[in-house]
Design brief:
Number of strands: 17
Order of helices and strands: HEHEHEHEHHEEEEHHHEEEEEEHEEE
Structural class: alpha+beta
Radius of gyration: 29 Å
Helix content: 25-40%
Length: about 375
C-alpha cells in the first residue's frame, strides 16, 4: 500500500502544478487583453482608480449669492455620507461667470456639472455644456431660477436639490440662441440729431455672438422691466422687484415691429413685447406660454400688446393668469391681448431700438434680433 500512497501524492503534486500553470496562463492572457484595450483607447485597467464606476461631479458656484460660501461644506458632507467621490468645486468670477470653469471641469473628467447660483450662472454653465452629452445639474440660488421652476426642481432647498443631482434622471432639452443683428446707438451720439437712434451693426458683423437662453428671450416691455429692476430690492423681495420696475413702463410707447417666423413672409405689428420661449413658466406661478414644451424642438412666440392705459394692462394681466389655468379669451376686440404662435427661427426688427433680454440678463438696446432653437442640445438632470 506504500507505493499507492506515493502514487496519490505524486498525482496531487501534478494536479497542483497544472492548476498553477492554468492560473498563470489566464493571468497573463488577462494582462495582455488589458494592454491591448489601453493601447486602443478602450476600457482602463479595472484595478485602476480611474475605472471608478461612480460619477465625478463638479460644482460651478457663484460665491456672490447668499449662502453659497457655506454650501460647499454641505456638498462635501453629503457626498461623503453617500460614499461618493469627492466633488470638484469651482467658483465663478466677474470676468468669467461660469463658462471657463465648466470647460475646465469637463476637461478634468467631470461626469456631471452642477450650476450653483441664479439664472446667469445656469446660462453660463449650460453654454459650455451644450453638445457635450454630459448632464447639467442645478442647485438654484437667487431670484428667478427660471429653468429650475420649469423643470419642477427644488428651489430654496439645497439638500433636496443635491438629492436630485445624485439620484436624478437625465433628460435632453432644447436650448434657444439669440443674436443681436443690429444694435441701437444711444440718443445724443449722433451730432445734431438728439432724438434719432440709428441702427449699428455689431463690431463682429451680423453673424455676431449668440446668447443662450433656456426659458425666454424678449424684446420690449419685459426687457425694460428687467433692466430697471433694482438689485437691492431684488435681494429683499425677490422676483417682485421686477413688477415694481414694470410700473414705470406702463405708459411707455408701443413699438413698431416687423416679425418674420421661419420662411414665412414678414408681418408688421404694434406691440408692447415680443417674447420667444423655450418653456413658459415665470416666478409667482405665472404661465406666459401655456403651450411651450422644453423638448419639442420649437420655440413658442407671444406677441403682447395693450392699449387703454391701466385698464388695458389689467385685462392683459387677467388674461395671463387665466391662461395658466387653461382658459383663453379669444374675443377679437380686446384692449389687452396675447397672440401665440410657434416657429423654429424668429427675426424681429423694431424702429428706434428696444431693450432685449435672455432669461433675465439684459443684452442692451437692439434694433434687430434673431432667435433660433437648438433641439435636444443640452442634457439636464431632473427629479
Amino acid at each position: 500500500m506504500r507505493w499507492e500512497l506515493w502514487l496519490a501524492f505524486a498525482a496531487l503534486a501534478v494536479a497542483l502544478v497544472a492548476l498553477v500553470l492554468v492560473l498563470s496562463l489566464r493571468a497573463q492572457q488577462e494582462r495582455q487583453r488589458r494592454a491591448v484595450e489601453r493601447a486602443a483607447g478602450g476600457a482602463p485597467d479595472a484595478e485602476g482608480p480611474e475605472d471608478d464606476p461612480r460619477e465625478l461631479v463638479a460644482f460651478v458656484a457663484n460665491p456672490s449669492k447668499p449662502g453659497v460660501p457655506a454650501l460647499e461644506a454641505t456638498v462635501r458632507a453629503t457626498f461623503a455620507e453617500a460614499a461618493l467621490p469627492a466633488p470638484l468645486w469651482l467658483e465663478t468670477t466677474i470676468e468669467d461667470p461660469g463658462v471657463g470653469q465648466t470647460r475646465a471641469a469637463l476637461a478634468r473628467g467631470a461626469d456631471v456639472v452642477v450650476a450653483v447660483g441664479g439664472d446667469g450662472t445656469v446660462r453660463a454653465v449650460a453654454e459650455a455644456m451644450v453638445g457635450s452629452g454630459r448632464p447639467m445639474g442645478l442647485v438654484p440660488v437667487g431670484t428667478g431660477n427660471l429653468l429650475a421652476r420649469n423643470l419642477d426642481l427644488p428651489v430654496g432647498d439645497a439638500r433636496a436639490a443635491l438629492r436630485v443631482v445624485i439620484a436624478g434622471a437625465d433628460r435632453p432639452v432644447d436650448v434657444g440662441w439669440a443674436r443681436v443683428l443690429r444694435w441701437a446707438e444711444k440718443p445724443g451720439e449722433v451730432p445734431g440729431d438728439e432724438d434719432r437712434i440709428p441702427p449699428v451693426t455689431p463690431p463682429d458683423g451680423p453673424g455676431g455672438k449668440e446668447h443662450i437662453f433656456l426659458v425666454i428671450a424678449g424684446l420690449g416691455f419685459d426687457a425694460a422691466m428687467v433692466a430697471d429692476a433694482d438689485d437691492v430690492l431684488k435681494a429683499k423681495v425677490g422676483w417682485m422687484a421686477y413688477f415694481v420696475a414694470g410700473i414705470r413702463h406702463l405708459h411707455g410707447r408701443r413699438m413698431r415691429a416687423t416679425i418674420q417666423l421661419d420662411d414665412r413672409p414678414p408681418v408688421d405689428a404694434r406691440l408692447r413685447s415680443l417674447m420667444i420661449g423655450n418653456c413658459g413658466r415665470l416666478p409667482g406661478g405665472i404661465t406666459l406660454l401655456p403651450d411651450a414644451v422644453i423638448d419639442d424642438g420649437v420655440l413658442d412666440v407671444a406677441a403682447v400688446d395693450t392699449r387703454g392705459g391701466i385698464v388695458g394692462w389689467a385685462q392683459l394681466f387677467g388674461e395671463v393668469v387665466m391662461q395658466g389655468f387653461g382658459v383663453r379669451n379669444e374675443l377679437p376686440a380686446k384692449i389687452g391681448r396675447i397672440d401665440h404662435t410657434r416657429a423654429r427661427r424668429v427675426r424681429v426688427r423694431v424702429e428706434g431700438g428696444e431693450q432685449a433680454q435672455v432669461d433675465g440678463d439684459v443684452l442692451g438696446q437692439a434694433v434687430e434680433l434673431e432667435c433660433r432653437v437648438d433641439p435636444g442640445a443640452l442634457v439636464v438632470r431632473t427629479a
